[in-house]
Specification:
Helix content is 9%, strand content 38%. By secondary structure, it is mainly beta. It has one domain. Strands 1, 2, 3, 4, 5, 6, 7 and 8 form an eight-stranded antiparallel β-sheet that branches. Strand 6 and strand 7 form a beta hairpin.
Length: 120
């Protein structure tokens, strides 16, 4: 997964219940969309130790309902989790105690250091 400043990160979310292991990865319940600000991108440029992770609470994000069974009309909070790899995942919790999770995604931030301009 390539991350760039001011681009959007979209992760699929699935209701965290007993049916989760059988779910089709191409049929999420919700989509989490986050604008990758300079500050958020800096937080994502970490690679935690093998037995640890970093939790990043999101304040600015959008949820889109994909499955008509789930609409998020209650208060909710979102968090990104970065584990060793680095592996990125998301969790959204609602005020009525429903949780949605994303699968872990391999990611490595890439940077444009302007090297190509110097070679011309």
């Amino acid at each position: 997964m390539e991350l760039a400043q001011d681009s959007h990160l979209t992760l699929p979310l699935f209701c965290f219940d007993d049916s989760l292991p059988q779910r089709d990865i191409d049929s999420p319940d919700l989509l989490l969309n986050v604008l990758l600000s300079d500050e958020l991108l800096a937080q994502l440029c970490q690679n935690p130790a093998i037995d640890s992770s970093v939790a990043i609470t999101l304040s600015d994000y959008q949820l889109t309902s994909v499955n008509e069974r789930f609409t998020v009309n209650t208060e909710h909070s979102a968090q990104l989790t970065l584990a060793h790899g680095p592996l990125l995942s998301a969790v959204v919790s609602t005020s009525d105690d429903i949780s949605f999770v994303s699968p872990q995604v391999d990611m490595m931030p890439t940077f444009d250091l302007g090297d190509e301009d110097e070679n011309e």
